[in-house]
Amino acid sequence: MINARTTAPSSGATLWKMVILLIALIVNAILFSRLVWGPQSLVSYRELASQHAELVRERDRFDAVNAGLSREIRLLQSDEKYVEKMIRQRLNFVRDNEILYLFTEDAPTRGAVPHDGKN
C-alpha cells in the first residue's frame, strides 16, 4: 500500500511565499520607476536624443558655412575678377572716371516729403 499523506501547506510556508512575492513586487516597482524616471531613464534618453539631433543639425549648418568660406578663399586666391568684385563691393573702391553714390535706407533725403505708403 501506498502511504499517501495529504497535508495542507503550512501557514509558515505560505507566509514566506507571500513575503518573497511582496519583495519581488517592490523590487520590480523600483526598477520600473528607475527605468522611466531615473537618471538613465527613457525620459533622459529622449532628451539626449533630441539634443543630439539638434547638435547634428547645427554641425551641418556649420559645415555648409565652412564650405562656402572655403570656396570664397579659393576664389580670392585664384580669381582676379572675383577679388576686384569683392574690393569694389565691400570696400567701395571705384575705377578711374567712376562716381560712387552710396544711399542709406534709414536717412531721409533732403527736401523730400516722407512717403506714408498711400498712393
UniProtKB/TrEMBL annotation:
InterPro entries: Cell_div_FtsB, FtsL/DivIC. Keywords: Cell cycle, Cell division, Cell membrane, Membrane, Transmembrane, Transmembrane helix. The chain crosses the membrane at residues 15-37. GO terms for biological process: FtsZ-dependent cytokinesis. It holds the Pfam family DivIC. The keyword Protein biosynthesis does not apply. GO terms for cellular component: cell septum. This is Septum formation initiator family protein. It comes from Candidatus Bilophila faecipullorum.
